[in-house]
């Protein structure tokens, strides 16, 4: 686990930010806190999953709780940028454990369009409605303003990677989820149901219209050869000048062509099916069957052979 934190002055109006990297899925997780009140949120937490043994564990989530406790934070909310297709969310687990530790239950939040994503994948995987309806406590409207202690935050709709995708702007920071990556990687894929390269271009331009010194904190990093360490944020100016897919001068037509060509060559995420089934449930476990199993469905690939 890699962790880094910012420490603003008390007069700055900026949050304390702890970025924690989960290397198995290349995911950046964040604890964002108001240093005056010690109220905090957690963004995009990871539940560990071993596909070779079908085993869930909680090392990454427990490390987030330890970090929050070490800093005396009270976690008010656990926020998702979208329904992830590459890792399982620890939101429900953290909500349950933090409720025990803190004496109150943090709310789980996501964008208001999550319903269409839930319905799409519930139908695909046979998830019963009672296991994914009303599992989120907060459904953010576009540009909805909310509080983290005394700090003001805003939910920003950033569709493209998924239709429900949100970013969270807190002070001079935007937690953009799977919209923009490190400048040498560019942007996220758009080939999931409801994804749109045109929408992602417009979301990227929305981010690049912010002040040059705004920090854009990404949801993932996959360092290529020549760059050893994962990087959690880059400035708007960095992206304007150097983002491989969406820097200044790249037209929407060019972006869509490049993004479409790139997506056609990408393999499906390793934990695609497990992640989507759990994440439309906000990380809640599937109900136990009559014979005592909790089941996830995995499609068979027949490689063109039928009998």
TrEMBL record:
InterPro entries hit by this protein: Metallo-B-lactamas, Mito_Persulfide_Diox, POD-like_MBL-fold, RibonucZ/Hydroxyglut_hydro
Native source organism of the sequence: Talaromyces pinophilus (Penicillium pinophilum)
Protein name: Metallo-beta-lactamase domain-containing protein
Gene3D superfamilies the UniProt entry points to: Ribonuclease Z/Hydroxyacylglutathione hydrolase-like (3.60.15.10)
Gene Ontology biological process terms, A to Z: glutathione metabolic process; hydrogen sulfide metabolic process
Example GO molecular function: metal ion binding
Signal peptide interval: none
Record keywords: Metal-binding
Domain Metallo-beta-lactamase: 26-220
Domain of life: Eukaryota
Keyword Zinc-finger: no
Pfam families assigned to the protein according to its UniProt record, in alphabetical order: Lactamase_B
């Amino acid at each position: 686990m890699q962790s880094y934190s910012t420490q603003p002055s008390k007069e700055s109006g900026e949050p304390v930010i702890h970025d924690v990297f989960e290397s198995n899925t290349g995911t950046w997780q964040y604890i964002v806190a108001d240093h005056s009140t010690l109220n905090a949120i957690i963004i995009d937490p990871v539940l560990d999953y071993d596909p070779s043994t079908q085993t869930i564990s909680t090392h990454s989530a427990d490390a987030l709780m330890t970090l929050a406790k070490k800093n005396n934070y009270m976690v008010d909310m656990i926020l998702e940028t979208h329904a992830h297709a590459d890792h399982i969310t620890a939101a429900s687990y953290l909500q349950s454990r933090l409720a025990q530790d803190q004496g109150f239950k943090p709310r789980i939040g996501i964008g208001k369009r999550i319903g269409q994503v839930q319905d799409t994948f519930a139908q695909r995987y046979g998830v019963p409605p009672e296991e994914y309806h009303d599992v989120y406590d907060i459904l953010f409207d576009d540009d909805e303003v909310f509080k983290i202690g005394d700090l003001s935050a805003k939910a920003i709709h950033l569709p493209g990677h998924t239709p429900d995708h949100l970013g969270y702007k807190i002070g001079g920071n935007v937690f953009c989820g799977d919209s923009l990556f490190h400048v040498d990687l560019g942007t996220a894929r758009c080939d999931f149901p409801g994804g749109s390269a045109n929408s992602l271009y417009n979301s990227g331009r929305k981010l690049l219209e912010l002040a040059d010194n705004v920090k854009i904190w990404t949801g993932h990093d996959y360092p290529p050869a020549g760059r050893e360490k994962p990087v959690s944020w880059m400035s708007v100016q960095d992206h304007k000048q150097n983002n491989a897919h969406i820097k200044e001068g790249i037209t929407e037509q060019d972006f869509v062509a490049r993004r479409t060509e790139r997506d056609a060559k990408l393999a499906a995420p390793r934990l695609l099916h497990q992640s989507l089934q759990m994440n439309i449930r906000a990380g809640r476990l599937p109900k136990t069957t009559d014979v005592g199993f909790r089941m996830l469905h995995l499609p068979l690939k027949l490689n063109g052979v039928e009998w």
